[in-house]
Every structure is written in structure tokens, then in C-alpha cells.
Design brief:
Distance between the termini: 35 Å
Shape: elongated
Structural class: alpha+beta
Number of helices: 5
Number of domains: 1
Helix content: 25-40%
Radius of gyration: 21 Å
Number of strands: 4
Length: 146
């Protein structure tokens, strides 16, 4: 049976782990919660003519019901990054540089796309994000509650 992410066993287990997680402030009495993030991306054509396209990366909090977060008018989906295309000149440079370009062009370009994707994620998941993932972050909500 399919339901919400926050109804899953994995989410429940992670909630329990967060309650026992280390904190920078040992006297902290604030409520600890899991912020479940979902990311996705897909190619988007930038014009009705030509081949220009970009790969936007979107995120939403899975703590919200799918009936809320999937409504375009809810504002729950946030754009967090663009994955740039490989430069056109790269294929010309690889053709001159790589001895097996003629027979392995597809595999080489797949590798380059993969490396580009990993570089974008390394930028997004920087030291500040890793620290927040490990120790949490105090968030002041709209109602003033932390």
C-alpha cells in the first residue's frame, strides 16, 4: 500500500534516530524533527525552437502531504540549482584528445555527464549542509517558535 513518506517505517526509524542525535547545545530543549527532502530534475527546453535545454533541480519537503506539495499553487516546490549542459566545444576537444572517441563516444559522454552531476551535488552538499545534517539546525518558524 502506498501512502505518505512520513508514514513509512524508515521515516519512523529516522525520527527515533534524530531524537538521540548529538547536538552542539547539550541544554537544548527544542523539539527535534526530521526534515525529509525530496529532489528531482528533468531536462527542460528553453525555447520552442532550437535545442537549448537546461536541467533544473527542484526540492520539496516530504513532511507535507502529497496532496499539498504537488499542487503548483502551494509554493511547496523550490528551485535549488541548475545542472548546466556540457559545452559544445567539449566534444571537439575530446575527439582530438581521446584515442577511442570513435568507438566509445557514448560511454565517454555518459561519464562526463555523470561527473558534471556529481560536481553539482558536491556543491549543494557542502560542509554547511553536512554539519546541519549531522547536528541539526535551529529554525525559527513563521509563528516565532524555534
Amino acid at each position: 500500500m502506498y501512502s505518505e513518506l512520513y508514514d513509512s517505517d524508515v521515516f519512523y526509524d529516522e525520527h527515533n534516530n534524530v531524537q538521540r542525535a548529538p547536538s552542539n547545545d547539550r541544554t537544548c530543549k527544542r523539539e527535534k524533527v526530521v526534515a525529509a527532502l525530496m529532489f528531482w530534475s528533468d531536462a527542460t527546453h528553453l525555447a520552442t525552437f532550437g535545442t537549448a535545454k537546461m536541467w533544473p533541480v527542484y526540492m520539496h519537503f516530504s513532511n507535507l502531504s502529497k496532496y499539498i506539495r504537488l499542487k503548483p499553487s502551494s509554493g511547496a516546490t523550490k528551485h535549488v540549482a541548475f545542472i548546466p549542459p556540457l559545452p559544445d566545444v567539449l566534444q571537439d576537444q575530446l575527439k582530438m584528445f581521446h584515442p577511442k572517441w570513435d568507438t566509445q563516444q557514448k560511454a565517454i559522454l555518459t561519464h562526463c555527464h555523470r561527473e558534471l552531476m556529481h560536481t553539482v551535488w558536491r556543491t549543494l552538499l557542502d560542509e554547511d549542509f553536512i554539519h546541519m545534517h549531522t547536528y541539526g539546525k535551529v529554525v525559527r518558524c513563521h509563528d516565532g517558535i524555534e
